[in-house]
Structures are given as structure tokens and as C-alpha cells.
Specification:
elongated, 0% strand, 127 residues, single chain, 3 helical TM bundles of succinate and fumarate reductases, mainly alpha, 4 helices
Length: 127
């Protein structure tokens, strides 16, 4: 039995370029997982506040480590990104903005708004 080697191969990740809306959709799912995992950090913070001065001081020392701060700000960005994408889904639920140009424009607006909200939070909470 001879095999046909001239037939086209199906697209794969090295050839196929995901559209912006696909990347945003995957990122939305990833930020949802990040927010779920970030709840562990939130519970730790709340329990340290309830645990008294010693545990609160230990939590503050841990939160001052640059890697923990980076994780914290990643959590904040994930929260705002997830919020902005949720607003976009509400617009879709109303049956609006399904043409390609609007989808891409709203995706860029979503990215910009989540970044601006994160930066505003950083500015407003800086010491």
C-alpha cells in the first residue's frame, strides 16, 4: 500500500497563528486559574491579620519580598483583566460586537483598560 506524501498537513502551533480574540480567550482562562490560586495568598493575609501582631508582622515581611510583590501585582492584573473580559462578555450576551473589526478593537481596549487599572492601583497604593 503506497502512501501519498504530497498531501497537505494540517496546521499546527508552529504554522497556525492564533487570532487576538483566541489569545484573549486563553488568557481569560489562565487568569481565572491564577485568581483561584491567588485566593490562597488572600486567605493567608486575612488569617495573619486575625492571628495577631506576630503573624501580621511575619506576613508583612513575606509580602516585602520582591518575588511575592510580583506575584501580588500579577494577581491584581489578573483580577482587572478578568473583570474587563467579563464586561466584554456582557456586551456579547446582548448580541453586540461580533464583527471581526469590533472584536479586535474591544480586545485591545480590554487589554489597555486592565493595564491602566493595574497601574492606577499601583500609583494610588504606593507609599
Amino acid at each position: 500500500m503506497a502512501t501519498n506524501t504530497n498531501r497537505p498537513t494540517s496546521p499546527h502551533l508552529q504554522v497556525y497563528k492564533l487570532p487576538l480574540t483566541g489569545i484573549i480567550s486563553i488568557t481569560h482562562r489562565m487568569t481565572g486559574v491564577m485568581l483561584s490560586a491567588g485566593l490562597i495568598l488572600f486567605v493567608y493575609i486575612v488569617s495573619s491579620v486575625a492571628g495577631g501582631a506576630t503573624s501580621y508582622t511575619a506576613m508583612q515581611e513575606l509580602m516585602s519580598v520582591w518575588l511575592v510583590k510580583l506575584i501580588y501585582w500579577g494577581f491584581i492584573y489578573a483580577l482587572f483583566f478578568h473583570l474587563c473580559h467579563g464586561v466584554r462578555h456582557l456586551i456579547w450576551d446582548a448580541g453586540k460586537s461580533f464583527d471581526r473589526d469590533t472584536l479586535n478593537r474591544y480586545a485591545l481596549i480590554e487589554l489597555g483598560c486592565s493595564l491602566v487599572l493595574t497601574l492606577l492601583t499601583l500609583i494610588l497604593t504606593s507609599e
